[in-house]
Amino acid sequence: MSFQLTRLVDPHTGASSHRLAWLASRPDGVPAGSAYLRLFTAAGHGHLAELDLHVHPAERRAGVGSRLLAAALAAAREEGRRCVTAEAEAGAPGEAFLAARGFRPALGLTFTRLALAGVDTAVLAAALAEPHPGYRLVSWEGVVPDELAETFAASRRAMDDMPMDGLDYRPTPWDVARVRGAAEAIARCGELLYTVAAVDADRGTIAGFTELVVPGDGTGDGQHYGTGVLPEHRGRGLGRRMKAEMIRLVRERHPDLGGLLADTADGNTYMRGINDALGYVPTHRTVRYRLDL
Fold it and tell me: Rounded to the nearest 5°, which phi and psi values hold at 82?
């Protein structure tokens, strides 16, 4: 069966990337698959593209995926990209598809969920009671308060050395404008951003932070974003303490929230240990693949 590829206009253009899109259709017009190619535009990322390709199960093994991939890779080369990444769930057909076409595994991610109704309150209370002399916790909703904006932007370098294994991602500098812009983008989507930060009591600067995004209606599952502690403040249990405080905070503010979702690189043993200790349960694992053009 022949399939038609249609180049689509994707309205999702952001400050740090834009996307190209294709739709594969059967002769009768029924969609068979799609592909999105995210082209990063932030400084230091202009060599990267990220592929998201899906084929309807009934249309697989008919060449749809190969045609979509060929179109996306041709566009990536035209845009001067040197590296394309794609993600597949471990054990799913996408793994074999990517491997057969030259992609190699670069980063494993384990996804976990904490059911808020089943939180071990004794474990949570113990984490909240741990003393951390020289530090205090602060929290806010939405955009960072003005008095903490500079130090919060500076603290984002805590994420610069997060395990990326074989992916060619490079840290992108944060400033106050970018921090505020990210929070405002979440608000425009109708979602709620919560941040808990550990402040060095002597210097008044942020030593670490954790972020969580909650659906605007306070139901369903919240999604953890970044969690990081600056290198000079590590080894004091701040990551565990901040995450425990975030769990306490959202349980109090959103009693109808079902759970909290997190994804952690397999090599990030520190954060995986925190999640395990607080009761997060693995749900699935994915692998990010890389193809050098």
Answer: -105, -15
Could you read off the pLDDT of 245-281 as tens digits, one per residue? 999 999 999 999 999 999 999 889 999 999 999 999 9
Structure confidence at residue 161 (pLDDT):
73
d(CA 240, CA 132): 11
**How do 257-265 and 220-229 pair as beta strands?**
parallel
DSSP letter at 258 equals E
Q: Would you place residue 40 in the very low, low, confident or very high pLDDT band (cuts 50, 70, 90)? A: confident
Cα separation, 197 vs 181, whole angstroms: 19
What are 259's strand-pairing partners?
115, 221
DSSP letters for 14-51:
-SSEEEEEEEEE-TTS-EEEEEEEEEE-STT-TTEEEE
Supply the DSSP string of 171-200, one letter for each residue: -----HHHHHHHHHHHHHTT-EEEEEEEEE
Q: Is 93 helix (H, G, I), strand (E, B) or coil?
A: helix
Exposure string over 13-24, b if 16+ CB within 10 A, otherwise e = eeeebebbbbbb
Closest CA to 34 of 47, 20, 44: 20
Strands (E), the chain: 4-8, 17-25, 31-40, 48-55, 83-89, 104-115, 135-141, 192-200, 205-214, 220-229, 257-265, 281-292
| Phi, psi for 136 (deg, rounded to 5) | -135, 150
What is the Cα–Cα distance from 65 to 34, expressed in whole angstroms?
8
**88 membership: H or E segment, kind and range:** strand 83-89
Instruction: Give the pLDDT mean for 94-114.
Output: 94
Mean pLDDT of the chain: 92
